[in-house]
Amino acid sequence: MANIPAQISVDSRRRPGWAAFICLVLLSATFLNYANRFALTENSQRVQVAFETNKEGYGYASGMFSLGFALGGLTFGILADWLNVRWLYPVVVVVWSLAGIASGMVDTLLGLSCAQFTLGLFEAGHWPCSLRTTQRVFHPAHRTFANSVLQSGASLGAVATPLLIVLLLKVDPDQWRWAFFIVGGIGIPWAIVWCFSVTDDDLRREVIQTDETSAGIGRSEAIRESSFWQVLLTRRWWLLLVVVICINVPWHYVRVWFPDTLQEEHGYSPEFVGYFRSIYYLATFFGSLAAGALTAWLPRRGWNVHRSRMFAFLLFGLMSAMSIVAAFLPTGWWLLAALLIVAFGSLGVFPVYYSLNQELSGKHQGKVGGTLAFSTWMILALVHPAVGKLLDSYPDVRPYLFASVGVGPLLAFFVLLLFWGRRQTSAVDASRTLATGNSGSPQAIGGS
Questions:
Q1: I need a labelling partner for 429 at 20 to 30 A (CA). Which of 62, 202, 209, 377 fits?
Q2: How is the chain split among helix, strand and coil, in percent rounded to 5?
Q3: How does DSSP classify residue 332?
Q4: Splitting the chain (448 residues) into consecutive groups of 10 residues, what average pLDDT does each group show?
Q5: How much is the pTM?
Q6: Is 406 helix (H, G, I), strand (E, B) or coil?
Q7: How many angstroms separate the CA atoms of 268 and 276, rounded?
Q8: b/e code 66-82 from CB counts within 10 Å (16+ = b)
């Protein structure tokens, strides 16, 4: 993390260490976001016993989280463009933390489903708020790296939560609900830190678009704005819809169903699964950071920023597609090694997706990301109950599901390669150039 200041650029009025600190604050928010949801998935079998339900019932509770996340993506996407993110963001974090705590207090499947719906609803607000932050603070050549630090918090949440649950089970197997209370309780201190970390001016800077033609960092031009409905009708929004579905389905399939798979299909103990899941998500942590670092390093070697992102997407998509091999390997070290390769690749595509998402609009960034999240999570809300019902009826289909979802990121790459195209330039763009030096390094981004 010590190299962060060299990878990013912000307003020169800010101290260099501030940029690194903001990255860490955003990383910690993503950590809390994922730790709260993993408190359920890591307790999947204990939840089924405690609530006297089966995989379909557990899938229903997970589906309610997905439904809440879908509606939250739309709701908070609109609010993030309308309200001051400096104050909206901490409210979102505090409420989802309370919903996480409530998930550990309820005694019925209906109560758990309602708590998970609320958790998903407010957790969705994290992404419009955080992506508006990185979009305004960082230059395009460094934005993917900042997004990778932001996204890597998901891995840390996924690493810490299984270890926490293993510890709780060792102390007292009946105290697994404490995982909900512990991770939920950290949200309030985070909200206080956020409020003292940023100012209104930090979140109102003009948004710089990616130069898709020049070598290296290229020119610094402000995004040319249009109405949200024009953005929604562009080819790029629809391409990103395909992309976000393709990269989310494998990620969330593993999150929801793989603890169950490793225990039932491969006979691993719950304790081993907890430890290995932490190693799995540690691999995703390094994969996310590696993707961001690669997209920051290549432009300094003369690569175009957009092509650097596409190369990283292909590389990490290929690693995710190793699921085709992993799905049919027998229990043993080769299976675990293949899964770690899948892990390294599966999260590395997300920072690139977020950077492409941020290219469509500055003014409407919240709604762009929110509508894409809504569409994705509406699909996921249907997927989890359907998967649970399918596995209850046809357990032998499990490896085929994993093999098929793992190729999603690779499919997304070819969709982008064939149809993303190149942004049109005009005299209007040229007149709005913010001017870069001969070295190609961007000037500081000023406020609006």
A1: 202
A2: 75, 0, 25
A3: S
A4: 41 69 94 88 76 77 85 92 93 95 87 91 94 90 92 88 82 80 91 92 83 73 84 92 92 76 80 82 93 94 93 96 90 91 93 94 90 84 78 82 88 95 54 38 31
A5: 0.81
A6: coil
A7: 10
A8: bbbbbbbbbbbbbbbbe
